[in-house]
Amino acid sequence: MIYLDNAATTMHKPQEVIDAVVAALSSMGNAGRGVNDASLSASRIIYDTREKLCHLFHGTNARQIAFTNNSTESLNIAIKGILNPGDHVITTMLEHNSVLRPLYEMEARGVKLTIVKSNEQGTLNIQDIEDAITEETKLIICTNGSNLTGNYIDLKPIGEMAHKHGVLFAVDASQTAGVFPIDVQDMQIDILCFTGHKGLLGPQGTGGIYVREGLLVRPLKSGGSGVQTYSKIHPAEMPTALEAGTLNGHGIAGLHAALEYLEKTGIDSIRNREQDLMWRFYEGVKDIPNVKIYGDFSTKNRCAVVTLNIGDYDSSEVSDALLTEYNISTRSGGHCAPLMHEALGTVEQGAVRFSFSHYNTEEEVDTAIKAIRELSQD
Length: 378
Known about the structure:
- By secondary structure, the chain is α/β, with parallel strands linked by helices.
- It has eleven helices and twelve strands.
- The strands form three sheets. The chain has a seven-stranded mixed β-sheet with strand order 2-8-7-6-5-3-4, sandwiched between helices.
- The protein is globular.
């Protein structure tokens, strides 16, 4: 199978990641729940993984990174742990449902919600975000890269704007963590939410949230912590505050190995490779009659995603044909990004997303180009 659905999850993982998970399954105890070798070994791996993530994101303190199951859990923690009835929050049409649905839930509880519109290419006018700020605005939350169009969002101007107005800034880095450089201090990010199974090349069921020092976020859950057992209240200190229950130590061991791979390989090298493959595909399909491509391709700095439709064909029909006739795996439908599809005018048809990994080859890309050319003639 030619796997071109890497924006959903990177299927091809470094062998080191696989080996680390297998080793952890046969040796790892429960971190923070004992003084035996198995428990202490788990604690060391988890601690070192925090350190590596903190270094990757240029955080100030590794204790400010809490592990979660994925970006969705991290975003729920951020949104529900910061906002209160009467607060105002600003987001954008580019967002995934992991941002939108928690916000709609908070809106039903009395939070005021503003969704900044994009144009038909899926790009934002940053000034529209600033124009939406009011005295009640508490939070701006947005993606770093659209999972549908691949458009990259420059975070630094938004972070500077937010802090100029005394507003918190939270970021969904699902599509960019491990591929694009993220500096939470330079970009003035208060909360960074990320997943481990995409660009970070780790296992599914891993992710995390970085919370700026001094900022308190209400925990989404409480329970076992391994410390302060006799307190009726869950510990307030990070990272324990946001980590009730046993962590996915086996998955975090895999994430640790993935971070070592990223350090060795270099995220710039990975990003450049993925973008080269993406541009090769884009140049090969953009002039095919009856093919419509979505997103902004005026800049090289974009996620390695090309989303398209062929005439009036339903996107699921095209994806099915790609799989059954060419053994190419893509993603069709709504991509959990309903408002972005509204902006693109593809609510009914959906769209076919090709998303690339540095493990893909030029031959695979050329096969995909050939497939689109042939399908467009049917």
